[in-house]
Design brief:
- The protein has 129 residues and is mainly beta.
- Helices cover 0% and strands 51% of the residues.
- Strands 2, 4, 5, 6, 9, 10 and 11 form a seven-stranded mixed beta sheet that branches.
């Protein structure tokens, strides 16, 4: 599985960006999770948003408290792409953003944990000033 992020940029506070993560390989099993994570300099990588698909459920989304109401995760199965729409960006959103994929169901309480994901992209930089 290969994941390639794009869309990172430098923006002013209050601005918007849309990140994309294109997946290739053996993805999109019946049940899977895709997540967006970020890591700022000197800080640990943290979960930002995740989307769970499978098991007959409709897609379910999850967000870190710090981004609720500002970020939206979505996916286009036809394009094997996951998006992160980011609105009202703040300087504290500055980080390298990574997408990740897990070919299985992750418990809701663990879905933003980095150790639950198997595959990672190289990241795309978001800078908010």
């Amino acid at each position: 599985v290969q994941l390639v992020e794009s869309g990172g940029d430098s923006v002013q506070a209050g601005g918007s960006l849309r990140l994309s993560c294109a997946a290739s390989g053996d993805t999109w099993l019946v049940s899977n999770c895709m997540g967006w994570f970020r890591q700022a300099p000197g800080k640990e990588r943290e979960g930002v948003a995740a989307i769970h698909t499978g098991g007959g459920d409709t897609e379910r989304t999850f967000y870190a408290d710090s981004v609720k109401g500002r970020f939206t995760i979505s996916q286009d199965n036809a394009k094997n792409t996951v998006y992160l729409q980011m609105e009202n960006l703040k300087p504290e959103d500055t980080a390298m953003y990574y997408c990740a994929y897990a070919p299985r169901i992750i418990l809701d309480a663990q879905i933003l944990r980095t150790d639950r994901y198997f595959y990672w992209g190289q990241g795309t930089q978001v800078t908010v000033s």
